[in-house]
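Lab notebook: predicted structure, single chain.

Context: the supervisor wants predicted structures on file for every construct in the current expression panel, including those that have not yet been purified. This is the next one on the list. No modifications to the sequence; it matches the entry in the shared construct table.
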Amino acid sequence: MQRFVVRRILSETNSTNSQRCNRCFFSQLVQKQETPLNDNEVFLPKMPPFDYSPPPYTGPSVDEILAKRKTYLSPSLFHFYNKPLNVVDGKKQYLFDENGRRYLDGFGGIATVCCGHSHPDVVDAVINQIKRIQHSTVLYLNHVIADFAEALASKMPGNLKVVFFTNSGTEANELAIMMARLYTGSNDIISLRNAYHGNAAGTMGATAQSNWKFNVVQTGVHHALNPDPYRGAFGSDGEKYAKDVQELIDFGTSGHVAGFLSEAIQGVGGIVELAPGYLPDVYKSIRKAGGLCIADEVQAGYARTGSHFWSFEAQGVVPDIVTMAKGIGNGIPLGAVVTTPEIAEVLTRRNYFNTFGGNPLCTAAGHAVLKVIEKEKLQDNAFVVGSYMKERLNALKDKHEIIGDVRGRGFILGVELVTDRQQKTPAKAETLHVMDQMKEHGVLIGKGGYYGNVFRITPPLCFTKEDADYLVDVMDYTMSKV
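Prediction complete. Output recorded below exactly as produced.
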């Protein structure tokens, strides 16, 4: 990638009125072929070219939007950045603000935009469906929900064949917990410390970060030691962490449990990939105690890891229930619970219904997303480009002491910032600063972890090597200024 010596604050604006000017300026820099003055010279990279300009924006200003948001929306809502970003357009791996400025989307709407913003195949599927019928009810027949369920079941291992559609990951996890309790006749659920599984009654109990828990009744959940290779007590020894689950069963329950719920790579928790060998041992303990194993694939699933379609597959296990959302709809509100025919039978004991879950519009979009992933080989791309980006981030770790850890796989990567590598002191303020400055240079990433000091890099699966270079180079440039 061509890099340029920084002699002035520079970032590509790509507004519809200034694209030609920017191209001329960058062209002049290329012609000059400037070279660093010394080995410590700082470079600012050039954003990869992209052949799309959004139509002019004629909507309200940022200040007007903020005023309405403050007046009419919940005060619990928050936003990133000192200068909030007003996103008005998106195409593939890029977003555009009200001035037409282009941003590289390294966050994917919290690991949600899977095959790219406004993918034409997904757009066409939604338009074609809404022209015929937007919603009826699952009490009537419609082939769209059945076709998508069949396609989704074909991506599952073992006997995971029965699909129940929901509107979100929280709903999917709520349903999975209830099904486990009904099927086993037990109440106790075991989840992991540092986990996030949703913000409703049952899922808030399974969530294990005080940042996300309100002081309401949450019962029947036990939180095991988190098998965190970076901050955990046993490093990368999955077997030692797994013993804690067995001890919770022995000393914290009747000896019988409803189930175990976990992500294989914790998303909100800071892209923590569970220690190797952990899940096989835990699944054995849970099943021995009569429980079901639930895999939360809301963030790390759906080809995002690259190496596998589902993140739990990297640990060599097959769950009894799998939950998913986010990437399944590429931004359309859609989630799902997939389980075995035997476990699915528990919902026939009473009436269980979801008005919007599985409606024709959402399932048409979901089926289109799955087809795009396969047609464009986006899982392979996530593996190749994601592995490349992780290598580059690890090289950045060697350069900048503030980076304590680089982790994850494919397009779910985490970069943890610390002020002291030995003490692993969270660099909270620095994380916010770097993130804000990266945005000023046209790169959007997320953050997470209990201390809010982990960059979450979860881009659309169509990200290229040039995009990866630009993201890492901008991070490098920004960190050099800290």
